[in-house]
Amino acid sequence: MSVAAVVPVPELESDPKAAVRENEKKWGKPLMDAGWTCIPSTIILRQQALGLDPVDMNIVLVIAAHWWKANQLAFPSKKLIADTIGKDPTTVRRRLAKLEKDGMIERILRPQPGGRHNSNEYRLTGLIAGAVPLAKEEIAKRAEGKTYRKARAVKKGRGLVPVVKP
To answer: Name one Pfam family in it (predicted).
Structure first.
């Protein structure tokens, strides 16, 4: 089973508990202890550019909340997704089919003996691939803004280091 490549984040690998502690300060320990989900800001803030409406986004959030390890795909049932977001299972089925048709998700059947199936696994590689260019745009905008602010500071004399004469 192939899964999207996971890029390690060195600053978090040195102290993985630091991010959790920072989130505990924001959300409180009970909420963090009950479980949390990492969603890139680009996916949240650019959901419209990705073609996701609020129902689609909620489905993605439920799938992401059940995707705990990079090499183990999430497999929440359609009923669980429907109950979680307050929609009919038929709506969820249609939306999952649309997300798959749009290339945002991939549904993987999990057959059982006797012709039955367990709940599908879901791969978000299409969504991730679609979000990467938007993330790169954001990174470029930030770098451009940082360069602009630095140039303005130098122009106003704030970015210069004073020379101390002996």
So the answer is: HTH_36
Q: Are 42 and 135 in contact (CB under 8 A)?
A: yes
Domains present along the chain, CATH in parentheses: 41-155 (1.10.10.10)
Residue 2 has pLDDT above 70, yes or no: no
Q: Which two tokens stand for residue 125?
A: 């590689």
CB atoms within 10 A of CB 53: 11
- Can you tell me the distance from the alpha carbon of 103 to that of 50, in angstroms, rounded to the nearest whole number? 11
Q: How far from 6 is each of 71, 85, 90, 114, CA to CA, in Å?
A: 9, 28, 33, 36
Tokens 């924001």 correspond to: 26
Comparing C-alpha atoms, which of 87, 79, 54, 80 is closest to residue 65? 80
Decide: pTM greater than 0.90. no
